[in-house]
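Provenance and format

Records in this collection were gathered into a single text stream. Each protein contributes a sequence line and a C-alpha cell line. The two records reproduced below are adjacent in the stream.
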Amino acid sequence: MTKILIWGIGGRMGKNILESIPSFENAVCVGGVDKFADSSQFPVPVFKCGADVDVNADVIIDFSRPDALDEILEYALSRKAGIMLATTGYTQEQQAKIDEASKKIAVFQSSNMSLGVNLLIELCKKAASFLGNNFEVEIIEQHHNQKVDSPSGTALSIANAINEEFDNSKEFVYGRHDKNCKRVNNEIGIHAVRGGTIVGKHDVLFIGKDEVITLKHEAQSRMVFAQGAIRAGLFLATKNTGKYSMKDLVAQFMD
C-alpha cells in the first residue's frame, strides 16, 4: 500500500486528489499540508507546515505553490519519500534544487497530469514524424474565463513536442490578427479561446492538401488531473532515485 501525503490539500486539486485516492486499492492518504486549510474539515491529519508533519509517507503529491518547495524537499529528503511536483512557476534556482534532489530521491515533475493529454502529445509527435512538411500544423486551445496565461502550457508542450520532430526548425505564430501575409510552411499556429467554465480542450490540426487530420483532447473535470497525479505517485513509489515525467508514465502504455 502506497502512503500518500498531499501538499496543498486545501486547494481544489488537493481536494480532488483526496476524493480520488479511495478508487485506487493500492493507495491511501496519510495526511496533508496546507497552512490555510481548516483541519477539522478533513478526514486525515492536516498540518500547517512541513516541520509539523508527524506521519510517514512513501510519496508526496504537490499541488501547492513554488514557495513551498524548500519545505517539501526538506521533508522528502529526511524521510526518503518520493515527490510528485505538479506546481509550476519555479525559478532556475529552484529547478536546480529539484534536479539535485533527484540524485537522492525519486522526483516526478509535470505541468499537466492528465494521462490523456500526455498520450495526445505522443500521438502528435508520431503524426508529425509520419506526415512531415507536407502537412501544416495549427493548435487551438480552449479554457475557462478565469485562466490568466495564454497560450496554455499544454499547448506549448504540444507545439514543442511537434517541433522536436522537425529539429526545432518551426516558428510559433500566436494568432494571426497582426499578420498581413500568407502562411508559410515553417509555422506552427497556436490560438487561444477563453470563456465560461471550459476545464481544458486542445485540438491539433494537421492540414494537408484536400484533407485534415485532427487529434484532440478535452478534460471535462479536474478529476482527470487528480487521477493522473495518483497514477504518477504510484509509479514514483517503485523508484528510488531519478527524475521522471508523464512521458515515462505514458511510455508504459505505448510500448
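Adjacent record:
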Amino acid sequence: MRTIPVLALSLLLTCSCAMPASASKDLDALRRFSQVMDLVERHYVTETKREDLINGAIKGMLENLDAHSTYMNAQEYKEMQETTSGEFFGIGIEITMENNTVKVVTPIEDTPAYKAGLKAGDSILAIDGKPAMEISLQEVVSRIRGPKGTEVVLTILHAGAAEPKKVAIVRDAIPLVSVKSRKLEDGYYWIRLTRFSEKTTQDLKDAVRAAQKESKGGIKGLVLDLRNNPGGLLDQAVGVSDVFLNEGKIVSIRGREEDSERVFRATRDSGDLISQPMVALVNAGSASASEIVAGALRDQKRALILGERTFGKGSVQNIIPMADGSALKLTIARYYTPSGVSIQAEGITPDIEVPFEAPARDQEDSPYLTVREKDLDRHLKGDAEKRGTGREDRKARDGHQEAREQLARDNQLRMALQFVKNMPRLKAILQ
C-alpha cells in the first residue's frame, strides 16, 4: 500500500477545512461587531443594556440603506398599523429623512399640522427642544405623537426662510377619512384623495356613485385631486387607478432579481364606473401611491395631469413582522409607470405645469364670491321660500357658495375645471 507522508497529509487536511474567503470575511465582521459591543458594555461611561445596543445596531444597519428602510420596535410597529387601519393621535404630517434632515412631505388636510401652517418641504429641526437629527425617523414620529390635547413644540425651518421658528401644536385625533367630494358646477365634480388607507378604493367608488345619483344629467367631468397626498397602501393605489381604467398596465414593481417583475393591470369590471373627462391635480406633496395613480392615468392617456412636479418616491417597502412584536420596513423594489419609467427621485412631471398662487387676503372683488339678495340674513322671502322650498334651495345655495369660495382660493382647481369642461371640444378639434 502506498503511504502518504505526514507533511503531505497535513497540507491536505488544511486545504479541505479552509473556509471560502467570503465566509471568512463575514466571520471577521461578526467578530468585530461582538468586540465593539463587549467594549461598550465594559467601558462606556454609563451602564448599557445589550438589547438596546443590538436594537440600535439593527436600526443603524437598516437606516444606512435608504431613507425608507427602518426597524420598528413593538410600540412603533403598532403606531404604524394604526395610521392605515384606525384612529390615532398626533398632529397629522407625513415626514421623510433627506440628507440627515427631517422633511415634511405633506401635512394631512384638516389636522393640527395643516392648521398650524406646516407645508411640504419644511424642515423639522427639533421636537420639544431635542434635535431631530440625533434620532431615527421612526423615533421622530413617536415623539411627535402623543395623547390628545397635549402640546408638542416643533422647531421648523420653512422652505426659503432664513431663520427657524418654534411652532406649538396641540395633538388631536387624526381622521382617516381619505376621500372628499364636492360639486363644482352642474355635472362637474371635485374628488380629493388625502391618503391611501384600507378603505380608499371603496370610499372613492361610493363618492363617484353619489355624484352620479346627485347629478341629474350625469357626471360630465371630474377633477381628481392628489395634491399633498403622501401615499399609503400599494393595493389601494392599484384599486383607485382601476376605477378609472378599463384595461392596460397600472404599475409594475421590480426587485433585485431580473425576473422578479410583478405587473398590476386594470380590470374591465372596475373601469366602467366612470369614463367622463378627467384632470388629475398633483404637486410636490404628492408622493408614492399618488404618483402611481398619476403615472397610470397619464401614461394610459386617461387624464390630463396638471399642477407641479411630484415628490419622487418610487420605491416599495415591505413590512416584515418579527417574533417579538417588532418589525422591519424594508425597501424591496422600485415601481415603474406603464411606460416603463421609474420616478424615483424624479417625480411625475405634469402635462401642464401650473404653480399654486396663494389667494390675496382681500377677495371682495372676486367674481367667484358673488353675494345676492337671497344670501342676506334678513332678506324679504321670495315666492319659492313661501311655498316651503326655501330650505332645500338654501342648502343648495350653501353648497354652491362653498364651491365658489373654493375655486376663488385655488387657481389650480379653477384651471383644472376649465380644462375638464373643454376636453370634449379639444378632442374634437385635435381629431
